Amino acid sequence: MKKCAPKIRLSSPWFGDEEIAAVSRVLCSNRISMGNEVKQFECELHSFFGRKDTNISCVSSCTAAIQLAIQASGFVHGDEILVPTYTFVATFQAITAAGTRPVPCDIDLDDGFINIDDARSRTTGKTTAILPVLFAGCDGKIGRLQQFAEDYGLKIIEDAAHSFGDENISLRNSILCFSFDAIKNISCGDGGAILTPDDEIAEKIKDIRLLGVIGDTDRRFNGERSWDFDVTEQGWRYHMNDLSAAIGRAQLAKFQAIKQIRCSIARTYVDRLAHLNHVRLLPINFRTAVPHIFPIIIKNGKRDELKRYLERNGIETGVQYKPNHLLSFFNLGYDLPKAMELYNSILSIPIHPLLSESDVIFIIECIKKFFYD
Ligand SMILES: Cc1ncc(COP(=O)(O)O)c(C=O)c1O
């Protein structure tokens, strides 16, 4: 059968006149590297998170954010980090890029969160941190994870790539890593941010995001460049640039509208799909979360057939994610059955600000038709 090109996209950024004006402003200024726009974006994010005792550092991606957070926490080669296998490969690559070792753990089937008992069973004398992934924004078990981390003396670094805008999240004391890539809740094109209440770690992140040049952030924010400087450790070119920051600022300014649209689509899906026999939904906390992806779990073994059916109807879908322990680079013979079960039954359906109400209804009707016609 001839395959149709997808007409309804799985995800999309929402750019308009505000972002075009922001990019033009920076291009016209002839200063596009890290400078005033990044400074302003960090200030605005600080106000957005509403917490005085925290530090924000903007970087080039969430992958970079995780790597820098690990390095700045002082973890070194050979340290082991507990991480759910069920995440985008970026999480794992960031851990190995920092020289540390990801230890893939199984997940809970209800929400994709790292299974604490499995993590405990994989803890060794080399384990220094746990890196939960807030899959689809689900963080209902974070309290249990915090207790486990405290009991074992582990640091927590959260992969919050899916969770920008969640009101709960900025209240935590862990290091939080956000993504502003093309399709996240706000987008800079590509970008990320690290939130931490630890001043020392924040200071270090600011240096190592700029090739390890000590104190370079302040100089760049003042429109200067260092010529006589020192470097005391490995650094990276992971800072955010002013073009990306300007786009991020425009997105942040319209975040309430983005939130309203994403939440409204997700609520419609919940209202109309939750009662279907063959479908299970994740326990997203709608009081605080802003859904970035909307996965549904197909209980009758027909995930692949449904995927093909929706695609024939012009609806793009996704399978998020292929567990990392299946990838040659990270496969050390792990058996993680719950992650496999989720992988074989999950399907992400479209959610983004450019979806119309009729698109959403059409998607729902197609899913119902597939199961019941
Ligand atoms: C769970 C998760 N972690 C990390 C990342 C990496 O984010 P970035 O593309 O900003 O590096 C992503 C991106 O999709 C993600 O979904």
Walk me through this protein's architecture.
By secondary structure, the protein is an alpha/beta fold. The chain folds into 2 domains: 17-253, 3-Layer(aba) Sandwich (Aspartate Aminotransferase, domain 2), CATH 3.40.640.10; 255-372, Aspartate Aminotransferase, domain 1 (Alpha-Beta Complex), CATH 3.90.1150. It is built from 13 helices and 10 strands. It has helices at 17-29, 36-49, 62-72, 89-97, 116-121, 142-152, 199-208, 216-221, 242-253, 255-273, 303-312, 337-345, 357-372; strands at residues 55-59, 80-84, 101-105, 127-130, 155-159, 175-179, 192-196, 279-281, 294-298, 346-349. The mean pLDDT is 96. Bound molecules: pyridoxal-5'-phosphate.
Question: Which SSEs are present, and which pair or pack?
Answer:
Layout (H helix, E strand, L loop, with lengths): L16 H13 L6 H14 L5 E5 L2 H11 L7 E5 L4 H9 L3 E5 L10 H6 L5 E4 L11 H11 L2 E5 L15 E5 L12 E5 L2 H10 L7 H6 L20 H12 L1 H19 L5 E3 L12 E5 L4 H10 L24 H9 E4 L7 H16 L1
Parallel strand pairs: 2-3, 2-4, 4-5, 5-6
Antiparallel strand pairs: 1-7, 6-7, 8-9, 9-10
The site of pyridoxal-5'-phosphate has 14 residues, from α3 and α4.
Summarize the structure.
This protein has 373 residues and is of the alpha/beta class.
Average the pLDDT over all residues and give the rounded result. 96
Radius of gyration: 21 Å
What portion of residues is helical?
A: 25-40%
**What's the CATH class label of the largest domain?**
Alpha Beta
What's the shape? globular
Number of strands: 10
How are the strands of the biggest sheet laid out side by side?
A: 1-7-6-5-4-2-3
Please report the distance between the alpha carbons of the first and last residues: 20 Å
User: In terms of structural class, how would the helical and strand content be classed?
Assistant: alpha/beta
Number of helices: 13
Classified in CATH, the superfamily of the largest domain is Type I PLP-dependent aspartate aminotransferase-like (Major domain)
